[in-house]
Amino acid sequence: MDDTQISGDLTHVLFTKEEVAERMTALAAEIDRDYADKDLLLVGVLNGAVMVMADLSRALKIHCRMDWMAVSSYGSGTQSSGVVRILKDLSTDITGVDVLVVEDIIDTGLTLSYLISNLRSRSPASIKIMTAFRKPEAARNAVDVAYVGFDIPNEFVVGYGLDYDGHYRNLTSVGTLAKHVYS
Ligand code: PRP
């Protein structure tokens, strides 16, 4: 789906499909260099990271394995509580493995803070984070992110895995959702 199919739902397009693809390819080149001699495991955080994982992994020139986690924030409404429940754990033993956690977005950083400390306790060789998008203004928890696609404003953004009520994940561009859609 592209933005012409949801005309009126976006106030503006932040990044086109081409801009996103170009950035993912550039990040893949950095990861190729950094993990040239490593045993790389990409850990995607469901559901939003599906698009990033698909594009990033295929842009890599090095070997990698992939695994997935699904987590859910306790708490009501739109605010993350910081308490995270694991809905689906890894199938892989990450002891001694170089882990790169792949996210679609870091908003408050609470999900990743929990996830990283949980994964660290399993003794990986290394653990780093890659995210397609990051909202710096919303950061409540300092999370050390090795690879960032784009810093974005603190607005309701959809597309490229980011959803509103389960929709818009398959939008190829990334844009700001118009208020009339969610109010
Ligand atoms: C999103 C995103 C991160 C989390 C970031 O997931 O994929 O996991 O929120 O928010 P935080 O930095 O404030 O903790 P979400 O819970 O929306 O689930 P989804 O990936 O299925 O859309």
Molecules bound to protein: 1-O-pyrophosphono-5-O-phosphono-alpha-D-ribofuranose
Per DSSP, what share of the residues sits in E-state strands of 2 or more residues?
25-35%
Uncertain spans: none
Order of helices and strands: EHEHEEEHEEEEH
Describe the biggest sheet? 6 strands, mixed
Helical proportion?
Answer: 10-25%
Using the alpha-carbon principal axes, give the shape.
globular
Taking the alpha carbons of the first and last residues, their distance comes to 23 Å
Number of helices: 4
Q: Taking Cα atoms only, what radius of gyration do you get, to the nearest Å?
A: 16 Å
β-strand number: 9
Structural class by secondary-structure content: alpha/beta
Overall pLDDT score: 93
Strand order of the largest sheet: 4-3-2-5-6-7
SSE inventory with pairings:
Blueprint: E1 10-15, H1 17-34, E2 40-46, H2 50-59, E3 65-73, E4 84-88, E5 98-106, H3 110-120, E6 126-134, E7 147-151, E8 157-158, E9 174-177, H4 179-182
Parallel strand pairs: 2-3, 2-5, 5-6, 6-7
Antiparallel strand pairs: 1-9, 3-4, 8-9
